[in-house]
Design a protein that fits this description.
The complex is a heterodimer of chains A (312) and B (132).
Chain A: H1 3-31, H2 41-70, H3 81-114, E1 117-122, E2 128-132, E3 139-142, E4 148-152, H4 153-158, H5 161-176, H6 179-188, H7 197-219, H8 223-239, H9 246-251, H10 254-267, H11 279-293, H12 297-309
Parallel strand pairs in A: 2-4
Antiparallel strand pairs in A: 1-2, 3-4
Chain B: H1 9-21, H2 27-30, H3 39-51, E1 55-60, E2 63-68, H4 72-92, E3 98-100, H5 110-127
The chains are: A alpha+beta (312), B mainly alpha (132).
Chain lengths: 312, 132
């Protein structure tokens, strides 16, 4: 096996192995309730990204330089079974990520194709809403990149002017936070965590947190706006009564509980600005990893050799 | 009309002709509108539309007459509603890029909604705004 092929297999295998370990750690952390108190959407998003970003960083900044520095250019190693299995795991993760991405894109495209726009209204602050002809009381931000806000006729008719403005402000807040794109990225993460129940629970908690944050950004500290949004939520919920199969409703008790939390929070005074997610600090700390690993390159290369030879 | 209706291009064209006519027509009466289509193809298409519940069938002499069960707008509305229901069901399993304001709630939750609405009314009254 030549150098380039060995390098490719080593990179793939080390990503797979690192991802497996980090994913299991995150899932265990979730089970132990380590992140359940986190109600900030960006924190939950960060946790969901840890396996993919962590393994990619490890591979590119530790495994790759260690291999390039210490592996002889003309070495011809026969790959062991563990290397092949770990590399195959990475390919399976990537393939499944692409499949989920494709499924999500297809479902969104089908939705966009299926709705029939009745009218498009421009509201304050450049928000544009497309009123659609569907039976369900639907208000949503649709799409990943060029999102559009859609609202069914029934919702537009049920809400008064201020309530409808708040509903649209809520969806605009989702758009400004690029929540659909973040969701898509979480869905498509090529990691082992995606196959574990913790991933779905993390995404559900992220969704709940992003709804609360969109409510806050939409209505701010203005009590009149907060009440208008709370009232609109109740009206839309009333319109949706019986709109889903009973089994689905039983499975998703979180919907009504989440709605109750949102309404009670809107009726309480605004909690003010939430502390920003320390993304830059985390990124800087992560970039220190290659510097810290530099003295260990020789040891890491020996570990790579063990990985290549294992099961030969 | 309750079942799922995915219509093909030919079925759409046949329906358009039927809506134009506005009365029950037989396969033979339809044929001049589709000169390139075989009689049997047209018959099969009409029969398929009947089985999908889109057309109504009645006896016109020795042949069957077909007419649409509902208007173009009604049919389109039902198809779109059905698709949205399916898509929202799929979204429950985390699929489409869709941030929905509120997810569907059940009849059992009406009491809670009443309670929350009372809180909203009280808050509105406190703020001096108009109550509904």
């Amino acid at each position: 096996m030549n150098f380039a092929l060995t390098l490719s297999l080593v990179l793939l295998a080390s990503y797979g192995l690192a991802n497996l370990l980090i994913s299991v750690l995150v899932a265990l952390g979730w089970r132990m309730g380590l992140f359940r108190a986190a109600m900030q959407a960006d924190t939950l998003l960060g946790v969901r990204w840890v396996p993919t970003m962590g393994s990619a960083l490890l591979v590119l900044t530790v495994v790759l330089p260690a291999f390039l520095l210490y592996e002889p250019l003309h070495a011809h190693d026969k790959p062991g079974a563990l290397l092949v299995v770990c590399a195959a795991l990475t390919l399976a993760m990537a393939g499944d990520g692409v499949r989920r991405l494709w499924r999500s894109w297809r479902a969104t495209a089908a939705f966009v194709r299926s709705v029939r726009p009745l009218a498009t209204h421009s509201l304050d602050a450049g928000a544009e809403v497309t009123v659609i002809n569907v039976g369900q009381p639907l208000v949503a931000l649709v799409g990943g990149w060029q999102e559009r806000i859609v609202a069914s006729r029934s919702v537009a008719a049920a809400c008064d002017g201020e309530e409808f403005r708040q509903v649209i402000a809520h969806e605009t807040a989702h758009r400004q936070a690029r929540d659909n794109l973040k969701y898509l990225m979480m869905v498509a993460m090529p990691d082992v965590l995606a196959w574990l129940p913790a991933a779905a629970a993390l995404v559900a908690q992220w969704r709940a947190a992003s709804e609360l944050e969109a409510d806050e950004r939409a209505s701010g500290a203005d009590p009149h706006k907060r009440v208008a949004l709370a009232s609109a939520l109740i009206k839309v919920a009333r319109l949706s009564v019986g709109g889903a199969a009973p089994e689905r409703l039983k499975r998703n008790r979180g919907h009504i509980e989440g709605l109750e939390v949102r309404i009670r929070r809107l009726l309480a005074p605004s909690p003010g600005s939430v502390p920003a997610f320390p993304g830059r600090r985390i990124l800087t700390s992560a970039l220190l990893l290659p510097l810290l690993a530099m003295p260990l390159y020789a040891v890491i290369h020996r570990l790579i050799e063990v990985l290549v030879a294992f099961g030969r | 009309m309750g079942e799922r209706k995915a219509l093909g291009p030919l079925e759409h064209r046949v329906l358009a002709v039927l809506w134009e006519r506005g009365r029950a027509v037989t396969v033979k009466q339809m044929q001049p509108s589709f000169p390139r289509l075989a009689y049997t193809t047209l018959m099969t298409t009409l029969d398929r539309l009947y089985r999908k519940g889109v057309l109504r069938r009645c006896r016109l002499g020795r042949a069957f007459g077909y007419e649409p069960r509902c208007s173009r707008e009604e049919l389109f509305g039902q198809m779109v509603c059905g698709q949205v229901t399916d898509l929202l069901a799929v979204c429950g399993d985390a699929s489409a890029m869709l941030s929905t304001l509120v997810q569907a709630v059940g009849h059992a939750d009406i009491e809670l909604l009443d309670e929350l609405e009372a809180l909203v009314r009280a808050e509105r009254a406190r703020l001096g705004g108009k109550t509904e």
